[in-house]
Amino acid sequence: MSDYVIRATxxxxxxxxxxxxxxxxxxxxxxxxxxxxxxVPETRYAVLAEQRRDRWLPADPAADWFSDQRDTGRRxxxxxxxxxxxxxGIDLEQPSRTQATQPGQAHSEHPTRHRAxxxxxxxxxxxxxxxxxxxxxxxxxxxxxxxxxxxSPDTPFSGPFTSAADLLRSGRVPAELxxxxxxxxxxxxxxxxxxxxxxxxGHTRLALRWHSPHRDRDLLVDPDTGHYAGEHDTVTSDxxxxxxxxxxxxxxxxxxxxxxxxxxxxxIGTRRSGVPRTG
Length: 279
Hints:
By secondary structure, the chain is α+β, with helices and mostly antiparallel strands. The protein has six helices and nine strands; from the N terminus they run βββαβααααβββββα.
């Protein structure tokens, strides 16, 4: 399906409005102990922890943006159990954020301000794009792929696919560039387009799947808007102590235009309680 073109559109963001990018995430954490005479690290615990992350992006890409995030406290143990972890002295409590959005809450009271890149000393990058970095990227798939391959050579754990996902995760990528990214990635030999995928909250998505060593990594796309819609990483071979089929990380991303900083529409703030499979 490499000839299939994913179309993308952008919402009109008016004066004083924001694009809300809301992420429901489960990410894996590991706890290891030294064992044997040589002190070899042994992974004893693996746990998926749930987070909520919200960003408010203004219409002007050079303007300040805002974020709010929190750990929900929900955990899924893939290796070990909570009681054993406490007995081993592992502190599982995450620092709370006073500006955290509560479940189902329709407003975040004190989101964190992030200064516009125009006043920051560093140049933009795939991981931290500013408006100048985005403006300079090619809008044609083949030149864009060459740029990705130049900036991000292939390794077992990173490469063009990883950098593209980093960029899309920012929520600041315009529609024409998103289209070019998707068309560029499907040209890679180890990437395929999946036309029926489901995110952790049950939304139907397109997926660009990278078959990396020992893992399949899905970059999820909203089929209606072409917006980045999250990611899903699945262990594909019994490496270490994680069995094949285990979810290593997963996110569901929804977007909406809101009238005020901190606003969270009800459809986004609630009904997002999906749980990943663990093997």
